[in-house]
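Per reviewer request, we include the raw input and output of the structure prediction for the construct analysed in the revised manuscript.
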Amino acid sequence: MVVIVKKGMGKKKFNEALLKIKHTKKLDAKRHLGKVNWGEDALKYQKKLRDEWD
C-alpha cells in the first residue's frame, strides 16, 4: 500500500493514514532459529573473512 504524504499534512493525519495500512504477513524468525549449521564458530568465521581484506 502507498501512503501519499502531502506538504503541510499534520502529524495526526499522517499517523491515521499509517494506521489504516493492513499488515497481512509477519515474519516468524523463531521458526528459523538454529537451522543453519556452519560447522565453525561464527566469530572465528568473521575474523577469517576480515583478515582476507588486509
